[in-house]
Amino acid sequence: MVASPTSLNALELQRVSVAQRLRDVSLNLSHGCLAGLIGPNGSGKSTLLQAAAGLLPAEGEVRWAGRPMLKIPVMERGRMATWVPQEARFEFGFSVRSVVAQGRFAHGDDERGVDAALERFDLAGLAQRPVNQLSGGERHRVLLARAVATEAPLQLWDEPLAQLDPRHALDVVALGRELASSGKTVLLSLHDLRVAHGLDFVVVLAGGQLRAAGKPIDVLTPSLLRDVFGVQLRTGPGMILELP
Amino acid sequence: MSTTRASPWILPLACALLAGLVVASIAIGDFPLSPARLWAGLTNEDALAATVIYQIRLPRVIVAVLVGAALSGGGLVMQAYFRNGLASPGLLGVSSGGSAGAVIAIAAGWATASLSVLPIAAVIGALLATGAVLVLARHGASTERLLLAGVALNALLGAVTSYVLSSYTLSYERNAQILFWLLGGLEDRTWEHVFMALPIVSAAALLWPLGRRMDLLSLGADEAQSLGVDVRRLRGWMLALTTVLTALATAVAGTVGFVGLIVPHVFRLLAGPEHRRLVPLCLVGGAAFVLACDLLARSVGGVRLGVITSLIGGPFFLWLLRRRA
Amino acid sequence: MTNIIRCVLLWLAVGSVTWATGAKGIRVVSQTVGTDEMLLALAEPEQIAALSQIADDEAFSAVATQAKAYPKLSIHGDAESILKYQPTLVLFADYSRSELVAQVKRSGVAVLVFDRYKSLEDSYDNLRRLAKAIGAETKAERVIADCEARVKNLREKLKGVRRIRVIAPSTYGAIPGSDTTFQDLCDYAGAENLAATIGKLVGHTEPPGEKMLTWPIEKVVIAGATAESALKPYEKLPPYQFMPAVKQRRVALLKPYQLSCVSHYRIDGYEQLARELHPDVFK
């Protein structure tokens, strides 16, 4: 099954399998697409993101702009795709700024955009703080800021919203939207179906297999949600949070 | 944070301290030399004083500097490799392999044949141990497997050393030599030892260019890879360099504990975690630390270097930790 | 004419060198207790620059009292700690650290390394070697002759006596069999070392613990001040605690150094053990 949003393919996954965790997933994402990856725990979301970033030995093929991801030299790949882990663990007390500046490693450590990225994630005031003294949410924002600083056209974020307060979570979505409209491809895994509903494209995984992919309005149907998550979708008056 | 403000002074201070310790170590010793005689020795006018300075003290000082730099540099690399401040250069069995090799050479009586037998046996033991760990963990496999293979090998080699030690309990003299070696020391290091340890200089010089990559690796292997670091290659280099550093240090000075664990920690507390700054600091600082401990060991008399490094290093580190907390 | 002056000058030079390095100019440092014992027996007091750190320890040294008068090397001392005595000769054993020996050698000081000390003959050879180095050959022959006389005397006394069956127990899990200094001691003192004859042990080896209880041990050879204090560690140590010889305190008591002596002072041990095992012939 090949799912494609629109226009030119940026990220292509062809029959990608990772031992026991992912089976035969094929997927195309275009430039300028903000896509969500949903699925129950253990459905293979993190594995898919790592495979897409070329961090896992996988069967099948991952291509970026037509080139096999694993054939791209590591340094160049660092400028093309960036991946943000689900957990932000820091053993050593690097300053917030120096961690964000690591995003420029593949660019010869030129520090371009580092301060803007700090600013973007409300981290300017924490710039000199050691990262291992930050809260979980703050750490995650540091990792996202580092990812943004890479200016990579492919952004793969693993559950970026999980540890964030509502304001910063909305902010991350807004940022993803910004990056997408500047032509980048953003794929993020998440559990919040209401947020997923607002994205350009949704990919649904279950048991390591692709269950559905497409526009949220087409994919997030009551029957699929019942099938995949075992939850009942009810529409009606609800609470909607927005950035002011 | 104060660390970043204080740091520009730390390296020059450490260098000055090292230079002072070198001078002191050459001037002070069991053989009493007045300043005048010291000068006569340095200028080769007094043959006996010259022997003491150039054949006894100088090689010892150089070996101390090399060993200190090697152990703390090796420790720094291992801590970045395993993303754990508790990692030490001996984690993968390099030093216990070296010990086993040396102890076997002493027990078998080969060590008396030539000065180079003991260091060579230690290097062979260390390299075999590293090779075994890599095979056991299959090269490139996860750090966890590598760590477990190291733990297992350390236990095995420890048993070999204990076995040899226990079967020679009655050969008092050899046993004393083994213990002497196991507790580490720099007594009577010769120019042969200096030459044998010289590759430490090149291995240490290769550490600095890896500094930036080690920064990234120390915050996560996958993250580093995604940011453009060739993690496999980097890890290969790091393992090769620590192996060389630790094996040679063990070969010429026996097992000297604590340096590789504590010196990187101390400088991380003082100057922050960035490796391009830490590498030169640890090399100089480690050298100064071992030299200072050796100077103390000499003046106290009869206390082994390995004992002093731990006795001094432990409380100092705890004090620093409390002050920083 | 100039030739004559040259000859005179040469003669003066050679003469003064010989004088400077003559008997009076010798300064010896001894690094092991075995060489301490030999040195004290052969050298003039002013020739002794320093002795090993355990030279005055009665547990190891036959010459503890005499040794008190001389400086002692420091424990784990390096080459400097030896060179500071400005020796002309340094005595080592083959178990001295090779780096230490090499450093001292390289400083230009003469070095003697003793590597055979199992038997009494070895001890004599060592005495002669040292004597040659310090010019005390006649004194050495006198010491050896004296030793020979004592050994001969002992042999005559013990002629025809039944060998007493003994072992030398230890608290650290190994006992001496054949090819040890203890075997040498037994051979001269009229004793049968059961560890060698029944146990077939060679060198210092772990004994067959339970089987040892069946050995017909007449006396245990131990070192200490009194039989009580020397036996104390074995009273609660299997298998020794179950041995009749230990229970009934059948002990041959030696001075601590006598069990480990490698110099000619081992004869003290021969005599002492013989006296303990065969009191009748010494009445």
Strand residue content of chain B: under 5%
Largest sheet of chain B: none
Q: What is the first-to-last residue Cα distance of chain B?
A: 13 Å
Which range best describes the helical content of chain B: under 10%, 10-25%, 25-40%, 40-55%, 55-70% or over 70%?
over 70%
Number of beta strands of chain C: 10
CA distance, first residue to last residue of chain C: 77 Å
Q: Give me the Rg of chain B, rounded.
A: 20 Å
Shape of chain B: globular
Measured as a percent range, the helix fraction of chain C is 40-55%
Low-confidence segments of chain C: 9-23
The helix-and-strand class of chain C reads alpha/beta
What does this 3D model show about the protein?
The complex is a heterotrimer of chains A (about 240), B (about 325) and C (about 280). By secondary structure, chain A is an alpha/beta fold. Helices cover about 30% and strands about 25% of the residues of chain A. Chain A has helices at about 45-50, 75-80, 95-100, 115-120, 135-150, 165-180, 195, 215-220, 220-230, and strands spanning about 10-20, 20-30, 35-40, 60-65, 65-70, 80-85, 155, 185-190, 200-205, 210-215. In chain A, strand 1 (about 10-20) and strand 2 form a beta hairpin. Chain A is globular. Chain B is mainly alpha-helical and about 325 residues long. Chain B is about 75% helix and about 0% strand. Chain B has helices at about 1-25, 35-40, 45-80, 95-105, 115-135, 145-165, 170-180, 190-195, 200-205, 210-215, 220-225, 230-255, 260-270, 275-300, 305-325. In chain B, helix 4 (about 95-105) packs parallel to helix 12. Residues about 1-5 of chain B have low confidence and may be disordered. With about 280 residues, chain C is of the alpha/beta class. In chain C, the strands form 3 sheets. Chain C has a 4-stranded parallel β-sheet, with helices on both faces. In chain C, strand 1, helix 2 (about 35-40) and strand 2 (about 50) form a beta-alpha-beta unit. In chain C, helix 6 runs antiparallel to helix 7, helix 7 (about 135-155) runs parallel beside helix 13 (about 265-275) and helix 8 packs across helix 13 (about 265-275). The longest helix of chain C is centred in the middle third of the chain and has 21 residues, at about 135-155. In chain C, about 45% of the residues are buried. Mean pLDDT of chain C is about 90; it is low at about 10-25. Chains in contact: A-B, B-C. The interface between B and C is medium-sized, with 35 and 28 residues.
